[in-house]
Amino acid sequence: MRFFEDMQVGDRREVGSFTFTADEIKRFARQYDPQRFHLSEEEGRNSLFGGLAASGWHVASACMRLMVLDTQRLDREAVERGEKVGVGGPSPGFRDLRWLKPVLAGDTITFAFEIEQARTSDSRPEWGIVHFRNFGTNQRGELVFSFLATGFVPRRGAGG
Amino acid sequence: MQLTFEDFPPGPFGSFGPRHVTREEIVAFAAEYDPQPMHLDEEAASKTMLRGLSGSGWHLASVMMRMMFDGFIGRAASLGSPGVNELRWLAPLRPGDDVMLDVEVTEARLSKSRPDTGIVTFKAVARNAAGETLCEMVSPILIGRRDGAGAG
Fold first, then answer.
1. Residues 78..137 of A with a Cβ closer than 8 Å to B: which?
2. Is A14 in contact with A111 (CB distance < 8 Å)?
3. Would the CB atoms of A98 and B83 count as touching at under 8 Å?
4. Is B43 among the domain residues?
5. Chain A residues with CB inside 8 Å of B58's CB?
């Protein structure tokens, strides 16, 4: 991943899109969130969602997939240019996760992130602590999903 | 009988599990949703900060969701959740872990906009068999009232 020194508050990047098919919505739900409105079109229509809706954890997991693939793509490109790439640390967590609108079967969600805060770690000077606001927007341009994630980002020249 | 808003007063609610998580499940989830080497391959994982194969944090959160479903949401008048106030990943999920989930109601109030609906905020804490805390999550869930016109 990019180094802490290359990230600035306000940086925004789109990482890709994910289409939620009815089959995939049901497959995720059967395993991890088998509430009736995630399993059946009819139950979905009769719920607050108004249709077969993806589990919120499915939406979050799809966002993670695209974030990871985007980082790996950027890393490959940097390596091809002969540049050094960093390795990120595990995330301590997130807050303010909002499922703002239902993600229904057939919806395509485009995910993006924006850097909201960046500081160095006092206890681990080889790391920066970055707060990323992640967004999901549907094909009608409606914001459907957001959360504020925290990540450890390597500092350039820290030996990573 | 279906659980309604009235069944969730603030205080300890219950403990659920164990839920066994296999290496195959960890790798399958990661391959689809979080394809980082530390979740896919022992050799690569041994060189990372987590020192060994670990489950995606999103996998653990999804396992916690399933444990809450099996524990009580599956028989509650759940209308869905608006989000997660906070989630903290404190220790890695490992292959073979038997996860336990302790659930507490931290707040229960009626919805202002939907008087037939309550908003119950849960704190769920996942632990492994050694008692080590893996993850803490605080999340509200909309739950129908017993006498609510829209319940069911």
1. 87, 89-99
2. yes
3. yes
4. yes
5. 57, 60-61, 64
Which residues is B20 bridged to in the sheet? Answer: B98
Q: Which domain holds residue B134?
A: 5-144
CA–CA dist B59, B80 (Å, integer): 19
Number of separate domains in chain B: 1
Is A56–B69 a contact, with Cβ atoms under 8 angstroms apart? no
pTM for the model stands at 0.95
Looking at this predicted complex, what is its ipTM?
0.95
Find tokens 């940097």 and name the residue. A78
Give the amino acid at A69: L
CB contact (8 A) between residue A35 and residue B81: no
Task: Give every CB contact of residue A81 below 8 A, 6+ residues apart in sequence.
Answer: none
Q: Spell out the domain ranges in chain A.
A: 4-154
Domain A4-154 is classified in which CATH homologous superfamily?
Answer: Hotdog Thioesterase (3.10.129.10)
pLDDT per residue as tens, chain B (152 positions) = 899 999 999 999 999 999 999 999 999 999 999 999 999 998 888 888 788 999 999 999 999 999 999 999 999 999 999 999 999 999 999 999 999 999 999 999 999 999 899 999 999 999 999 999 999 999 999 999 997 544 44
* Within-domain flag for B149: no
Instruction: Kindly report the backbone phi and psi dihedral angles of residue B130, in degrees, each rounded to the nearest multiple of 5, phi listed first.
Output: -80, -5
Min distance B82 CA to chain A CA atoms (Å): 5
- Count CA atoms closer than 13 A to A56's CA, side-chain side: 24
CATH code: domain of residue B36: 3.10.129.10
